[in-house]
Specification:
The chain is α+β, with helices and mostly antiparallel strands. The protein has helices at 17-33, 40-63, 84-87, 130-137, 144-148, 160-170, and strands at 9-12, 66-71, 74-77, 89-92, 96-106, 109-118, 150-152, 176-179, 188-190. The longest helix has 24 residues, at 40-63.
């Protein structure tokens, strides 16, 4: 679908520093595993993990599929490039009550996310179920409802200013909030 407005915000999967570094690391580690003297068990475990994992990340970057879009119809949460149609969700503006920018810290690294607060009774999205909600509830700083309607900004670049401008243009009553860092009030702060 072509952009209908210059204010449409769209991000595609592609090469970013983290993806390029991970693919490079996987390629080097795969090459090391192919050197003579590497134990067979190391090859059996490492080649699928690093070789196929690196190839999948390269495929994701090269796919250039839409990872996230804000336009006049609502918000498109792009899915996994391997199962793009099955895992992509479109959320119409009528179902959205807010946009939440949050991050998940794992092992000292922070991964930004864009999530949607949705109205009660909105239809479930792909991956939303009791098991998923129970698991994420203990590990993330936002509500399970927001997590189920979130996408990690991994393999694509999040431009917060353009995102906020697009939301303000297409849905003036929908706030864009930055989730407070740990130690804060826990309430999203307006951008």
């Amino acid at each position: 679908m072509a952009d209908r407005s210059p204010l449409t915000y769209q991000a595609r999967y592609g090469w970013d520093r983290r993806t390029a570094g991970t693919v490079a690391f996987a390629a080097v580690f795969t090459a090391v595993l192919l050197l003579p003297g590497v134990p067979l068990l190391g090859r059996l475990l490492g080649l699928p993990l690093f070789g196929l994992g690196g190839l999948f990340m390269a495929y994701t970057a090269l796919s250039r599929k839409v990872a996230f879009r804000v336009d006049e119809t609502g918000v498109l949460l792009g899915g996994s490039p391997a199962r793009y149609r099955a895992t992509t969700n479109h959320v119409p503006w009528a179902d959205i009550t807010g946009v939440v920018l949050w991050s998940q810290t794992v092992g000292g690294a922070s991964l930004p996310y864009v999530g949607l607060a949705r109205r009660k009774g909105a239809p479930p999205l792909f991956g939303d179920g009791p098991t998923a909600r129970a698991v994420v509830g203990a590990f993330v700083p936002v509500s399970a409802d927001v997590v189920m309607a979130s996408r990690a900004a991994q393999g694509w670049r999040l431009d917060r200013e353009r995102l906020a401008a697009a939301v303000a243009h297409f849905a003036p009553g929908v706030p864009v909030n930055e989730h407070a860092a740990q130690g804060g009030s826990g309430e999203p702060a307006p951008m």
